[in-house]
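Cross-check.
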Amino acid sequence: MKALSLIGLLFYSGFSIANSHEVSVGFGEFLEIEDGFLGVQYRHYLTELKNDGTPYGLQGYLQKSNNFSVGGFKNDDWHLYQADAEFFIGRDWRVAVDVTQFRDDSALFTATRDTIALVQVGRFVSENMQLGVTFIGERSEFDNYGVDERDTETAIAPFFRYTEIDNGVGWDVKMQKVAADIDFWQIHAGYYLAKNWQISASARLREDDFDQSVVELQTDYWFSSQSALKFGIGSALDDGGINTITLIYTRRF
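Predicted model, tokenized:
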């Protein structure tokens, strides 16, 4: 599951609704990449997002708007392409699917390709809490001097999400445990100081070697209901320095 923690950052739009399109462009550096990468993502909401009292960054989720996304990032050696879809069924159910392909061509005469498919099914057990499970399949392909290797791995990850917002202020907390060859936890805790400003912490915690875990601090600031900027810095726990930097601009229209 080495590629699972990489996050894909464009899809098609069949029709136009005001405030239902979202484009994000970003720059970042990851721990294992010498050169930075550039990424782009397009997301389309099938219903218009209402500018109510909910935080701008949570409007799609809290208003339960079905949406689709496609995007990717790259530098000279690394390429990632990703597409996802999220559906809200009735008042109680949420289904999300995600397909990501990651390629590493950094080594001479060697190429690595990982394809990851996720299906997440959740149920809203209360107004604020969602419980569910994520099914994960990963296929790894390794080509070294013409010698091909293939490997397939599956995993399951129970998750919960708790969101409590009052007048634009409150918590959004997500957590899941991935049971695979290497078990790890994915945690995200965000606090909205206002409907346009969130501070958060994200972590990927390994159970077998806690020092190899990665933690990132982030802030999202919406200048208006149409534009936002996200900035994050992260570090591996076995290294006191900064290992990841991300800067993403989002435009909604």
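The chain has one domain: 21-252. The helical segments are 59-62. Passed to J.P. for a second look.
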